[in-house]
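Researcher: Let's do a round of design. I'm pasting the structure tokens now; please hold your answer until I've finished.
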């Protein structure tokens, strides 16, 4: 990378102190929100963001609680600036908004409160806090509305410019209007106040910083921080080969029909600039999977940032090195009246996945080792959610948005397995709630909460495992349940021969013996709990009745693997078997590792791996592969003589695309992955294309593909 020096007159210590001060301020804003909120979505799961902006809406600093709010928060501030430009503004004012179409919110529950920051009489910035509020009105409790056909049914829509505090006092008529339209008004208002408290904390700390360094010096150094961040990102983009790259992903089930909706992206890289063009994506639908423009920007940014700017202080400079093009009226840039209440967790997550695939393809060709090593298995994104609403035995109404849905697996990396229950790429700092906290606050009893061993993307490095859990009612006779499991059929790809991860889903087990087992002092488990009927729920479904004695079972998607599973260290496979991450059968059939009494049988393993390579080709390979190779050694690379397989040195031709020289085999994805002990919902159009080296039998790529209808 290019080494750069600071311009004359700038002190590196002052630059770093101001930068770190801004980062500390937005983190302290988050702490203030947590300590003043009463919602477990905020206090336990961290589903919020905090940020500081300059007067024009450029990012000074951004907390890393939920990363894709980078987009929704930025769009919200800029749209507010545009709407109120001729209106009077005072210290202590605060504006509230949640409408995805006009304010850029990712979905209606993600509510923004934005406050001006004055130094004397001069506006010097904005404090912004955003959090998922438990209920915002609309047709279903919790703000997710699979049954909605338009945005008017989803929630109370708040556009930019709605003043909720004026000169430090609540705007009473606005407060009354809001609380009259939500199901849990006390919790709602307390959370709004916690957002205001967060902003007030940021305002005090920023003004203290400006007083310490002086306004002119503060502006000069923040401007320089923008420039330096932008330059680092541009230097890394420059290390990627110029070209045009294309990929696609698919959103599943729009809440009404079990269709697939294309998310297409063409990435053009020229010198130190990237353009992501989503032209060709599906038109907007009448279901709740449309992705707001704010969520689109955030979903792109939070895939790009960990790939190219993992160590860069985040500010506006990071955002300027890439452009986004999206057709109005499409599923990634919808217009009213498109419903939108789950678009960020479905289509937005597919945006992050497609950008990851594009960056994988581009970075693999870089001559820079650091950039090339940013390749990875795709994350098991797309939130698997559940919202329960009802009345407790004591007569109290409640709405539970179970944040356990964030327990999806991360994609595997060049040097490590993917993280288990890592969260989405767009919100890696979300936390899983404590079992005890959910049980204390809501009438539920967990029966199990464990890793989903049917979700791993197998590979030389294994994709992270998702979560699986089950609960039954404890203190309520009945609840109405909303569910969404958007990564059920089209699952996360691996990279460089790593296999895709497993999918998500929900079942309601009815006519169970849970009460008898508990009365006998036995803990029900997946293998011990009896049920007269196991009802598989639709990918998206609302108004599901769950009664006392029923059990809701949920499992969550895993991340894609990295590298051919036959290149995984046999000792790591044996450890996985001992730890219960992988079955002995999967170890033998997928990894070619024979485990006896917890240890590797080396001779049997060598024979098993040789047999699997021969089975892949239908003959004995002509090139030898060492028994243990680096994980990245199955991803094809290019030198002056063309493409080759690093694991064996086998050549793959000199064309632009190495796939033309590989052996290709296609299967129905659900059937094929079931052979590896991986579960996803069957769909005949969802295929997996496997590419093998015709000389050594190394698996070079295993990609999920949807056959056009």
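Researcher: That's everything. Go ahead.
Model: Designed sequence:
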């Amino acid at each position: 990378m290019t080494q750069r020096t600071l311009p004359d007159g700038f002190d590196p210590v002052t630059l770093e102190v101001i930068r770190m001060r801004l980062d500390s301020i937005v983190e302290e804003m988050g702490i203030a929100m947590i300590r003043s909120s009463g919602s477990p979505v905020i206090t336990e799961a961290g589903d919020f963001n905090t940020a500081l902006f300059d007067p024009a809406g450029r990012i000074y600093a951004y907390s890393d609680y939920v990363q894709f709010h980078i987009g929704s928060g930025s769009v919200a501030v800029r749209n507010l600036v545009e709407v109120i430009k001729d209106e009077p503004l005072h210290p202590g004012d605060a504006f509230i908004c949640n409408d995805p179409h006009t304010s850029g919110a990712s979905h209606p529950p993600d509510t923004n409160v934005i406050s001006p920051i004055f130094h004397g009489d001069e506006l010097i910035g904005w404090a912004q806090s955003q959090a998922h509020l438990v209920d915002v009105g609309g047709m279903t409790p919790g703000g997710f509305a699979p049954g909605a056909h338009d945005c008017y049914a989803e929630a109370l829509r708040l556009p930019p410019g709605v003043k909720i505090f004026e000169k430090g006092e609540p705007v009473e008529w606005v407060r009354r209007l809001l609380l009259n339209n939500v199901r849990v008004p006390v919790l709602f208002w307390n959370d709004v106040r916690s957002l205001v408290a967060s902003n007030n904390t940021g305002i005090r700390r920023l003004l203290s910083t400006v007083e310490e360094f002086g306004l002119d010096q503060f502006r000069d150094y923040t401007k320089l921080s923008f420039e330096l961040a932008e330059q680092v990102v541009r230097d890394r983009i420059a290390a990627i080969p110029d070209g045009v790259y294309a990929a696609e992903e698919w959103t599943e089930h729009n809440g009404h029909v079990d269709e697939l909706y294309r998310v297409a992206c063409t990435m053009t890289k020229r010198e130190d600039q990237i353009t992501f063009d989503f032209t060709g994506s599906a038109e907007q639908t009448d279901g709740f999977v449309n992705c707001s423009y704010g969520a689109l920007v955030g979903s792109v940014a939070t895939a790009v940032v960990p790939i190219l700017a993992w160590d860069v202080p985040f500010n506006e400079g990071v955002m300027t090195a890439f452009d986004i093009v999206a057709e109005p009226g499409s599923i990634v840039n919808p217009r009213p009246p498109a419903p939108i209440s789950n678009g960020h967790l479905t289509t937005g997550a597919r945006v992050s996945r497609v950008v990851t695939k594009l960056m994988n393809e581009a970075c693999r060709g870089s001559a820079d080792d650091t950039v090339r090593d940013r390749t990875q298995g795709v994350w098991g994104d797309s939130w698997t959610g559940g919202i329960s609403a009802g009345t407790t035995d004591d007569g109290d109404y409640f709405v539970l948005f179970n944040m356990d849905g964030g327990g999806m697996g991360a994609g595997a990396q060049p040097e490590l397995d993917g993280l288990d229950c890592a969260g989405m790429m767009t919100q890696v700092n979300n936390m899983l709630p404590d079992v005890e906290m959910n049980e204390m606050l809501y009438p539920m009893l967990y029966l199990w909460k464990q890793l989903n061993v049917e979700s791993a993307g197998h590979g030389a490095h294994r994709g992270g495992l998702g979560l699986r859990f089950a609960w039954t009612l404890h203190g309520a006779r009945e609840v109405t349940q909303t569910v969404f499991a958007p990564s059920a059929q089209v699952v996360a790809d691996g990279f460089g021969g790593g296999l895709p991860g497993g999918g998500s889903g929900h079942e309601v087990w009815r006519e169970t013996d849970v009460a008898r087992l508990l009365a006998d002092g036995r803990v029900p488990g997946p293998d011990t709990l009896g049920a007269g009927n196991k009802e598989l729920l639709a990918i998206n479904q609302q108004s599901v009745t769950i009664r006392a004695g029923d059990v809701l079972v949920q499992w969550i998607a895993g991340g894609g693997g990295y590298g051919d599973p036959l290149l995984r260290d046999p000792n790591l496979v044996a450890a996985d078997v001992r730890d219960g991450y992988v079955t002995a059968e999967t170890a033998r059939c997928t990894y070619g590792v024979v485990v006896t009494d917890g240890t590797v049988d080396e001779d049997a393993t060598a024979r098993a791996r040789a047999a699997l390579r021969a089975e892949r080709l239908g003959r004995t390979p002509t090139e030898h592969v060492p028994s243990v190779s680096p994980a990245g050694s199955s991803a094809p690379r290019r030198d002056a003589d063309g493409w080759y397989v690093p694991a064996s040195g086998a050549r793959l031709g000199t064309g632009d695309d190495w796939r033309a020289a590989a052996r290709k085999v296609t299967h129905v994805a659900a059937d094929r992955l079931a052979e590896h002990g991986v579960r996803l919902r069957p769909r005949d159009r969802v295929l997996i294309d496997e590419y093998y080296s015709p000389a050594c039998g190394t698996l070079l790529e295993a990609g999920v593909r949807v056959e056009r209808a």
